[in-house]
Each structure stands twice: as structure tokens, then as C-alpha cells.
Amino acid sequence: MAVIVELDVMLARRKMSVGDFANAVGITPANVAVLKNGRARAIRFTTLDSICRVLDCQPGDILRSTADPPA
């Protein structure tokens, strides 16, 4: 099973730039890119909480699982 981060979808829905989002959450734009590109291996619950607060969403809105890892 693979976990897919759909952060780019939520950023587009909120019309928020990566830079503005990174500043609001308190992480670097490089770390946002890692999340968006699916290269993240872990995420702290405090970071996930901040992301959800900034985007006004639930974790399930940005994380989903799939049976097969992406190609």
C-alpha cells in the first residue's frame, strides 16, 4: 500500500501559492515540494495539524491510500 499526498490539489482549490502556504504552516518551500512530489517518507502530526488548519481541511482531504505503489 502507498500513501498519496494530494497537497497540490488542495493548494489549487484554495488558490494558495507554495510560498504563502509554507510561511503559513511554518515549513520551508523545499519541504512543501517534497510533500507535493511524493518523496516524503514521514510527516509529524504537528505538521499535518498545521497543514489542515491552514487549508481548513481534514487529513483525509490531502492523504489517500492506494493498493499499488505509484509507477
Explain this structure.
- It is globular, with a radius of gyration of 12 Å.
- By secondary structure, the protein is mainly alpha-helical.
- Helix 2 crosses helix 3.
- The chain has a single domain, classed as 434 Repressor (Amino-terminal Domain) (Orthogonal Bundle), CATH 1.10.260.
- It contains 5 helices and 2 strands; from the N terminus they run βαααααβ.
- The two termini are 13 Å apart.
- The protein has a two-stranded antiparallel sheet with strand order 1-2.
TL;DR of this structure?
This protein has helices spanning 7-14, 18-25, 29-36, 45-55, 59-62, and strands at residues 2-5, 63-66. It is mainly alpha-helical and 71 residues long.
What attributes does this structure have?
434 Repressor (Amino-terminal Domain); 71 residues; 2 strands; 5 helices; globular; mainly alpha; 11% strand
Helix content: 40-55%
> Can you write the helix and strand succession as a string?
EHHHHHE
Structural class: mainly alpha
The rounded Rg comes to 12 Å
Terminal CA distance = 13 Å
Could you name the ranges where pLDDT drops below 50 across 5 or more consecutive residues? none
What is the annotated CATH architecture?
Orthogonal Bundle
| Overall 3D shape | globular
Provide the number of structural domains. 1
What is the number of beta strands? 2
CATH superfamily: lambda repressor-like DNA-binding domains
Strand order of the largest sheet: 1-2
- By CATH, the topology is 434 Repressor (Amino-terminal Domain)
